[in-house]
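Need a sequence for this fold. Nothing fancy.
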């Protein structure tokens, strides 16, 4: 009987896995058409200063699938990285965000806004990444001083020397770098002093548990201190409550992003 149950379980997993693979294959086929079919859009989430005023926005990719509706980036970005579609998609994101900067530059009320763009490691490690960014800046006429590229720790750990060289070349254009999801990677902190970073972004996990887990609070406090000592700006992401904002302000973090201030929104809704 155990044997029978085992066989049934196996068959059950078989079917489930098959469904999952089919689903994935369909999603992947659809993703190939997403860009030509204009199904990708950028949402923008405010990054605010101590007075609660937006100084810039993070561009967050959304896929409006004709049947499934909104597909979250957590679902399709890993897929796009595996099949390398992220290289074209990422270039589109950068170009669209740069266009937005040009539109904002035209109006005195928005001219100083910055835009932060997430860069996938797959995109960053392409040999012509630096050239592509420069071409997009040139083609759109966006001011590099208003553009921030968000990188993740994992990206900087492998091939650190190469990463450093790419960053230095890009820094010469005037753009800046933010280290996203800080504290979630596995790495030594040495790279913080060796790479031309401008901002540390405290991961939302630490912010979420700020007031219910002392160890988290200690980590956030140390991170803010570390950032200040290294001359980096520090931003907290995932700020959802007033209590979190107050705690962060008291501990010298003065730039925030999170649902407390604004959700990511299509540009018309900002
Ligand atoms: P991320 O760059 O760390 O972005 C922050 C995520 O947290 C976003 O999720 C945002 O909507 C969400 N968030 C912001 N404030 C709050 C809050 O107060 N509470 C909670 N619970 N969540 C908050 P989203 O938009 O689903 O993006 C997820 C991830 O997908 C991003 O994490 C980023 O790693 C990736 N991603 C998004 N757009 C792009 C893109 O254009 N290119 C690449 N390569 N990755 C992207
Ligand atoms: Mg980000
Ligand atoms: Mg993040
Ligand atoms: Mg993240």
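Here you go.
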């Amino acid at each position: 009987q155990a044997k029978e149950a085992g066989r049934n379980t196996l068959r059950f997993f078989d079917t489930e896995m098959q469904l999952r693979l089919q689903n994935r294959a369909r999603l992947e086929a659809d993703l190939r058409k997403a860009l030509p079919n204009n199904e990708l859009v950028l949402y923008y989430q405010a990054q605010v200063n101590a007075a609660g005023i937006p100084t810039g926005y993070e561009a967050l990719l959304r896929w409006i699938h004709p049947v499934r509706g909104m597909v979250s980036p957590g679902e399709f970005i890993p897929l796009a990285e595996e099949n390398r579609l992220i290289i074209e998609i990422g270039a589109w994101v950068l170009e669209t965000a740069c266009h937005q900067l040009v539109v904002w530059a035209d109006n005195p009320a928005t001219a100083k806004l910055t835009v932060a763009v997430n860069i996938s490691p797959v995109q960053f490690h392409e040999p012509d990444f630096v050239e592509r960014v420069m071409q997009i800046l040139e083609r759109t006429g966006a001011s590099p001083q208003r553009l921030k590229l968000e990188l993740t720790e994992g990206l900087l750990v492998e091939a650190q020397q190469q990463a450093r060289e790419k960053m230095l070349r890009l820094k010469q254009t005037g753009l800046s770098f933010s280290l996203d999801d800080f504290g979630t990677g596995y790495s030594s902190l040495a790279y913080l002093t060796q790479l031309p970073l401008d901002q540390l972004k405290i991961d939302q996990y630490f912010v979420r548990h700020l007031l219910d887990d002392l160890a988290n609070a200690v980590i956030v406090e140390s991170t803010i201190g570390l950032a200040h000592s290294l001359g980096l700006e520090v931003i907290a992401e995932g700020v959802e409550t007033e209590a979190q904002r107050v705690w962060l302000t008291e501990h010298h973090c003065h730039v925030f992003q999170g649902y407390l201030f604004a959700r990511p929104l299509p540009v018309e809704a900002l």
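For context: The radius of gyration is 21 Å.
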